[in-house]
Each structure stands twice: as structure tokens, then as C-alpha cells.
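Narrative of activities, Objective 1.

The group set out to show that a structural description can be obtained from nothing but a protein's sequence at a throughput compatible with the screening campaign. Below is one input-output pair from the validation batch, recorded exactly as produced.
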Amino acid sequence: MSRRKQIYEGKAKILYEGPEPGTLIQYFKDDTTAFNAQKMEVLQGKGVLNNRISEHIMLALERVHVPTHFIKRVNMREQLIRKVEIIPLEVIVRNVAAGSMAKRLGIDEGEELPRPIVEFCLKKDELNDPLVAEEHVTAFGWASPAEVDELTSMALRINDFLSGMFFGIGIRLIDFKIEFGRLYEGDHHRILLADEISPDSCRLWDLETNEKMDKDRFRRDLGGVTEAYAEVATRLGLLKDTAAGNVTKLSVVKNEADE
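Output recorded for this entry:
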């Protein structure tokens, strides 16, 4: 890694210059943060799990014609991705009241929402990523009206797919946060799903017990964070065995990236 040019380092990932123009290497760290990095810890193996889970989901979404920045997984911690211009918005889809929405609106956590709700937050750590309206998005030029419509439509399509996928393995998709980027092709550009989709960016509850299987285990000091992530990976068919409980030495089901 030391011989590569670092482009950006975030709370959970590092971006390096890619091997070809228009590409980047995305490295998944074990660093875990909450409350805008006010709470931090290194959880061994978490980056490996998120890399593998995000790869699986990105490939699945590509198969149902949701365009993503993902090209291939390089190794246990790295992905080759397309270089995009990140739209400065976090797009959140909520199916069930939880987290900040439950507090903000005084709704009991776990209450089913009348329909999936799409929210936008401005990507500004120093402002704690404030919730913004579509009017803010278009007035300040963070995205055009046509792009807002496309982001909303894509987010709901992703929600439909993920809800079904997780339901099939006994997991309830409560909500999730995604990011999008613009891929420029000559005078035109298209919108791609970017960043990652993993238990770091989703709320996932066991369908029968409501046990949390996501980063809320870290936020709320519930313990067993990497074990919960490993359980998600196991249900997705990505891990051979987690019975030993040693998630720092993962026995990963091989695919093309491992050959």
C-alpha cells in the first residue's frame, strides 16, 4: 500500500489511485466509528467482512440492472472501483422507525412506516450530516431536479431488492444509507451507486428475535459486533464456518476474486 498514491481516507475506508485511469482501489479498514467519530474502536476482521458483503450486494444489484461503481474485489480488504464524482448527499431509505427518525418524530422504535421513506442528508461531518429537503438539494446545486428523481427512484429499487434478499435469509431490513456518484463519459454522465452497502450502513434485525445485526451493536455497547457481521455473511453464503468465533481468521467461500 505504501507504493500507491493515497487519494482519500475516511472513517472506514481508504481510497488509492487505481491501476488504470478512471479507477480507484477501495481499502476497507477495521476502524469503527459512531456519532460522527466521537466514539471509535478497531474491531479486528470488520473490514474483511464489509468488503465481502458489499461485493456480494453490489454484484447482485448489477444483475438486476442497478449500475454501481464496483468492478471487482482484489483481495480480502480491497476492491477495484470506478472513479466517480461523489454527489454530496447521503440517501437514506427507511422501512421501520429507528435511530434518529424515531427520536426526531417521537415514534416508537420498531414501528413499521406507512411506506418506505427516502431522506437526504448533506455530507458534512463538521455539521453532523444534517437532514435536508429536496428544495435545499436543488437550490444549492448539490443535484439537479432530474438527478433527485433518479436518486429517489434508484434508492427505492435498491430497497425493494435488499428487503427481499435479506428477508430470504431471516433478516429484516430496517433502513440503510447509500451514496451515489457521477461517472462522466464525454459530454454526458450517468449516476452510479457508490461507497458500500454493509452492516456498517444498514440496520438489520433478525426476523424472529429482533436482535440487532449491524453497527447499532457498537453504537449501543451491545458487544459482538464482528460476530453479528459474520452471521450476516454466513447467512448470505459468504463464510464457511463461524462456529469457532474467531472472525479475525475468516474462512471465506471462494469466488472469482480469490482465484
